[in-house]
Amino acid sequence: MTAAGIATVARQEFRLRIRAGRWKGLLAVFFAVLLGFTVLLRGSLANVTDDDLPFTGTVLYGGLMLFVLGLALLVVPALAAQSVNGDRERGTLATLQVTRLSAAEITLGKFVAAWGTALVFLALTSPLVAYAMTQDGVPLGRVVVVTLVLALLLGTVCAVSLWLSSVLTRTTTSGVLAYLSVFAMTVGTLIVFGLVTAVTSETVDQTFRNDCSQAPPGSSCEEVVTFATTRARTDRTWWLLAPNPFVVLADAAPQLPQEEPARDGTEPGVRARDLDPLGQIGRLVRDLRVPPIEADDGGAVPGFEVEGAGQDDGAPVWPTGLAVNVALAAGALVLTARRLRTPTRQLPRGQRVA
Amino acid sequence: MVDVTRTGTGVVASGVRRTFGPVEAVRGIDLTARPGEVTALVGPNGAGKTTLLLVLATLLVPDAGQVRVAGWDPVTEPDEVRARMGWSPDVFGLYDNLTAREYLELFGEAYRLGRVRSRARAAELLEQTRLVEHADRPVHTMSRGQKQRLGMARALVHEPEVLLLDEPASGLDPRSRVELRELLREQARLGAAVVVSSHLLGDLEQVADRVVFVDGGATVGEHRIDELPAGTQLRPWRIRALDTDLLLGSLERHAYDVDGVTPAGVDVRLANDEAAAALLTGLVHDGVPVVSMQPVGGALEAAYLQLTEEDR
Ligand SMILES: Nc1ncnc2c1ncn2[C@@H]1O[C@H](COP(=O)(O)OP(=O)(O)O)[C@@H](O)[C@H]1O
Ligand SMILES: [Mg+2]
Fold first, then answer.
1. Is A20 exposed, middle or buried (0-12, 13-18, 19+ CB in 10 A)?
2. How far is the CA of A257 from the centre of ligand 2 (A)?
């Protein structure tokens, strides 16, 4: 495998994409939608308070990034979902396979082209990000991390779509399945997490101690009351939610500092951290990892969790989620290269070599 | 790096078998193609020609059999084979939005010739296949014959010593077919082992040194083209005379069965060359103004018809 071989394939794919023409239109629409979103979000923020809301940049940037991810997930599957079987259909794959390009070079070349195109879409957001950064509360480090994570997540979508195009004969099938896989990662993880958490929630006995000394004489007062209650064990199921791209993105964004001093003229205590959409999602999923406080035998009110009180956030969720995504991408690429390796022993039904 | 030993041996395949699920596409094909020769692969549709060529072209693993292409094993040493083998499939696509030049340069790079060499090779091949005028126009504006020639140029990009061509002449106009024949001869003259499958037996007869007949997935005959087995069957001959009525009358008198009468002439079936000579003598003796008399279809067609007839 050589870089030159990968570059040969990637350059070719890029050239075809550029000449196919539709991309200019698609890029223009993509940017227009993002611009519209940013303008509306900025406008809505201006309406919240008479005075300018503090840390507009934080809200603007967080909202924009979540929106960009959602929009990109609608576009990116199409970039690779017909890459291999489309070539097969047009009769251009086999002629490439008999050259000295290896299966890995063809796979990575196609992947680089698709991912590169996805990054072009991502790059379109930069003027809007720059605008958000001129507002308050968008540290550069956060922009760097969020951009990197976004790029990796889109790479996963490209790799999985590419793999689908290599295993499925029909381009329409692979196109539909590429979108389904994005759906599975976003909505699917949420549904599975919810259902599994519900199914695995456990019943525990909770004990209440009454103080019967104050009770009117003759009334039946039991010293100890025990009743059963169910509680969710999200600390055991949080990982189901971890691969969700929105969760990964939000949680990976560095949390804004706790102690940020309030700006002059704003209510004391308003911090960028409290307004940050990314940070809020991040804290939400980290809380899932915190196990419930176990019943304390001698305690006065055992078994009752005190929401948030004295608890630290749980450990970050994004390392797990990002690792799953990167592993998925790597696996998809390995399997694609295996599919493209020739000579082949087995042919899928109804598929001709050339 | 490609090893330069073990080359110059052309193609040797023996006992090749390949099934697709329940279909036995190839069940025992032997084929030898020597350097400097054009070997024709001839057989009816579904005989397994394309499948065999896919095996030779490092795309399919055979279920059984010994295969060497340019001295290397296409299954275990595909890269060595690919460096020395050019393949043009029966149907192939071109990248519609590329120009012919870009297309050839792409494949030059894919064969690891490097930028500079790829560019030079593309220019040479465009010249050789008469595509210079179309060099910088998108491929989708080309005619079918031009596309076919471009596909041929692609197969030649890395100056292969083994050339595998699957029905390269289909859809070509007569002029292009003549040029294709010249191109094949030229490749053989330069030392390549050329394997070409085709249904255009007349063309093959003019270009091939040897012919391998396949039918039902197996080799049924392998001959030098100038040593084709004399057919035991009657072969059609076509006679043209200035006066067709006179010709028909004479044929009737000599009790020949007339196959058909067309503007191109009168067809009769004759056993061999001696019978043809005798007939011509008789016609001239009868005073028929004969303009021409020639066999319809060549020896190859006769042999082909005989082989496939036996099969029925
Ligand atoms: N990928 C495939 N799957 C199933 N059957 C195939 C496949 N390729 C070829 N065949 C069958 O194998 C036989 C030989 O086909 P082929 O090699 O294309 O013949 P030819 O090129 O001589 O016309 C045919 O019966 C064909 O239907
Ligand atoms: Mg065929």
1. exposed
2. 70
Is the beta carbon of B32 within 6 A of some atom in ligand 1? no
Q: Is the Cα torsion angle B297, B300, B302, B304 positive or negative in sign?
A: negative
Q: B55 with A349: CB under 8 angstroms?
A: no
Mean predicted lDDT score pLDDT of chain B: 90
pLDDT at res. A40: 94
Q: Are B177 and B169 in contact (CB under 8 A)?
A: yes
Judge whether residue A302 has pLDDT over 50.
no
- Predicted confidence (pLDDT) at residue A147 exceeds the cutoff of 90: yes
A positions 80-99 inside 8 Å of B (CB): 90-92, 94-99
Give the residue from A7, A3, A9 showing the smallest Cα distance to A99. Answer: A9
Q: What ipTM, to 2 d.p.?
A: 0.85
Ligand 1 close to Cβ of residue B45 (< 6 A): yes
User: pLDDT tens, B66-101?
Assistant: 999 999 999 999 999 999 999 999 988 999 889 999
What is the rounded CA–CA span in Å between residue B56 and residue B78?
10
- For the beta carbon of residue B281, count every other beta carbon within 10 angstroms: 10
What's the pLDDT band for B203 if we cut at 50, 70, 90?
confident
Domain presence at residue A218: no
> For chain A, what is the mean pLDDT?
87
Q: Check pLDDT > 50 for residue A299.
A: no
Does residue B232 register a pLDDT over 70?
no
Under 8 Å between Cβ of B293 and B239: yes
Let me know if residue A192 belongs to a domain. yes
Domain extent, residue A116, equals 3-201+238-290+315-339
Q: Express each pLDDT in A236-264 by its tens digit.
A: 999 999 999 999 999 999 988 776 555 55
User: How many domains does chain A fold into?
Assistant: 1
State how far the alpha carbon of A219 is from the alpha carbons of A211, A212, A215, A222, B249, in Å: 13, 9, 7, 10, 137
CA distance B153 to B159: 10
Instruction: Say if residue A343 is preceded by a cis peptide, omega within 30 of 0.
Output: yes
CB contact (8 A) between residue A90 and residue B93: yes
Q: How far is A16 from chain B (nearest CA, A)?
A: 6
Whether the predicted pLDDT of A352 surpasses 80: no
Residue A171 lies inside a defined structural domain of this protein: yes
Residues 307-346 of A with CB under 8 A from B: 342-345
A5/A106 Cα distance (integer angstroms): 8
CB contact under 8 A, B91 and A354: yes
* Closest-approaching ligand to the CA atom of B22: 1
Percent of chain A exceeding pLDDT 90 equals 66
Q: Using an 8 Å CB-CB cutoff, list chain A residues near B59.
A: 94, 97-98, 342-344, 353-354
- Cβ distance B74 to B81 under 8 Å? yes
Residue A227 forms part of a structural domain: no
Distances (CA, A) of B286 to A86, B257, B267, B293, B309: 67, 17, 18, 15, 36
Q: Which amino acid is at A287?
A: D
Residue A310 pLDDT greater than 60, yes or no: no
